[in-house]
Task: inverse folding
C-alpha cells in the first residue's frame, strides 16, 4: 500500500469521479474509503470496493487516512474542510472552495494552525483549450493580449439539483464562473484586478444566477469578458483573444481554431475610395487584405491532469510547492465577492485584488 491514503467525503457524481480517476491514473494515492450522508451513496461506495464510513468520526479515526477530498455541495466545504484539518488530515476541496472569501480565510487559519495542506481542485487549469491559449500567449507570437473572451455556453437551461439553491451555494458564478475566473487569474497572476462588472441573470432558476457575463479589467491593461449560459443554442467560440500582433480563436473543447498574425512584409495600404461591402460602404470595417495576414495553427500542447494529484502527493511529502495555492483561491474568492456586490448594485466597481 502507498503512504498516501485518501478518504472521500461526498460520494456523488464528483466523489465517484475522484475515486475512478485516482484508481486508474494515480496509483501512488490509495483511495481507501468514503463518507456520505446518503445511505445509497454509501452502498455505491462499498460496491465500488471502498470502506463506507458511516460517520465523519469513523473517517477521522482511521489512522491510515492522511488525505481527504471534499466533494459535497458547496455550503459544506467550509465546515468539512475545517473538521478534516483539525482531525489532522490534508485536504483537497472541490471548487468553489467556499461561498465567499471570509469562509476561505477561516479555513486557511486552521490550515496554518494545524500545519496540514489545503488546496482546491481547480482541474480546469489542465483543460487543453486553456493550455493552448496559455502556450500561444507565452510564445509571444501574437504579441500582448488586450481583450480576452473566455466563454462556456450550454443549452440545457436549468441547473441540476442543489445547484439551483442559494443555500447550497448554487448558481453559475460559483459553479463555472469559478473555473473561468481561476483560468484568467492564473493567466494574469501578478497584475491586480482593478475593476469588475457582473450581469447575473436568473432566467430558469428562482434563487440563483444561471446566465451570466463578467467583465474584469487588470491593471496591466487587459480586459476579460467571461460568459456562461444555459440557453445558448449557437455557442460563440470557447476563447477569442485579441492581441497587438494578431487574433487567436479556440472554437471548442476539441480545440479547433487558428491564429492569424500580421505579416511584416505585407503592410496594409488604405484605398482612396470608399469600399462597398455586403453591408454598405465603409473603409474602417472593410475586410483586411489577405496578403497582410498569416494563418498559423494553434500550438500543440500535452495535458496531463494526473499532475494535479501527483503535485498534492509531492507537496505532502515536502518535495514540491502546491500548484493550486490557497492564496490564489483567496484572490479568486475576493473577486467573486466583488462580482456579487457589482450585480447587487447594478454597476461596475473599482477594486485592487
Ligand atoms: P452531487 O450532488 O452529485 O454529489 C454530492 C454528494 O455529497 C451527494 O452524494 C450527497 O449525498 C453528499 N453530501 C451532501 N452533504 C453531505 C455532507 N454534509 N457530508 C457528506 N456528504 C454529503 O454533486 P457533485 O456534482 O458531485 O458536486 C460535488 C462538488 O464537486 C461540488 O462542490 C461541485 O461544485 C464540485 N464539482 C466539481 C467539478 C470539477 O470539474 N472540478 C465538476 C462537478 C462538480
Result:
Amino acid at each position: 500500500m502507498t503512504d498516501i491514503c485518501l478518504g472521500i467525503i461526498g460520494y456523488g457524481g464528483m466523489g465517484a469521479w475522484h475515486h475512478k480517476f485516482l484508481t486508474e491514473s494515480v496509483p501512488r494515492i490509495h483511495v481507501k474509503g468514503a463518507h456520505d450522508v446518503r445511505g445509497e451513496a454509501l452502498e455505491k461506495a462499498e460496491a465500488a470496493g471502498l470502506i463506507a464510513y458511516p460517520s465523519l468520526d469513523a473517517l477521522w479515526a482511521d489512522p491510515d487516512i492522511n488525505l481527504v477530498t471534499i466533494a459535497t455541495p458547496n455550503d459544506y466545504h467550509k465546515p468539512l474542510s475545517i473538521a478534516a484539518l483539525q482531525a489532522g488530515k490534508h485536504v483537497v476541496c472541490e471548487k468553489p472552495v467556499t461561498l465567499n472569501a471570509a469562509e476561505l480565510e477561516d479555513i486557511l487559519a486552521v490550515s496554518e494552525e494545524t500545519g496540514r495542506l489545503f488546496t482546491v481542485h481547480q482541474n480546469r487549469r489542465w483543460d487543453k483549450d486553456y493550455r493552448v491559449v496559455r502556450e500561444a500567449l507565452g510564445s509571444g507570437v501574437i504579441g500582448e493580449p488586450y481583450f480576452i473572451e473566455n466563454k462556456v455556453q450550454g443549452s440545457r437551461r436549468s441547473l441540476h439539483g442543489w445547484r439551483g439553491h442559494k443555500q447550497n451555494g448554487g448558481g453559475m458564478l460559483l459553479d463555472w464562473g469559478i473555473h473561468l475566473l481561476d483560468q484568467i487569474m492564473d493567466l494574469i497572476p501578478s497584475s491586480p484586478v482593478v475593476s469588475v462588472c457582473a450581469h447575473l441573470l436568473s432566467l430558469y432558476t428562482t434563487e440563483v444566477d444561471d446566465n451570466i457575463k463578467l467583465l474584469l479589467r487588470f491593471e496591466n491593461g487587459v480586459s476579460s469578458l467571461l460568459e456562461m449560459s444555459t440557453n445558448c443554442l449557437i455557442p460563440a467560440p470557447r476563447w477569442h483573444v485579441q492581441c497587438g500582433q494578431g487574433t487567436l480563436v479556440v472554437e471548442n473543447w476539441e480545440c479547433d481554431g487558428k491564429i492569424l498574425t500580421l505579416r511584416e512584409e505585407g503592410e496594409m495600404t488604405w484605398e482612396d475610395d470608399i469600399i462597398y461591402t455586403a453591408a454598405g460602404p465603409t473603409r474602417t470595417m472593410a475586410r483586411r487584405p489577405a496578403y497582410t495576414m498569416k494563418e498559423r495553427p494553434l500550438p500543440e500542447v500535452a495535458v496531463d491532469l494526473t499532475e494535479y494529484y501527483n503535485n498534492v502527493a509531492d507537496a505532502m511529502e515536502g518535495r514540491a510547492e502546491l500548484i493550486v495555492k490557497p492564496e490564489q483561491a483567496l484572490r479568486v474568492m475576493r473577486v467573486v465577492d466583488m462580482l456579487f456586490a457589482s450585480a447587487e448594485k447594478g454597476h461596475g466597481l473599482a477594486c485592487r485584488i
About this structure: Residues 9-15, 35-38, 41, 71-74, 76, 94-95, 121, 123, 161-162, 175 surround nicotinamide-adenine-dinucleotide (CB under 6 Å).
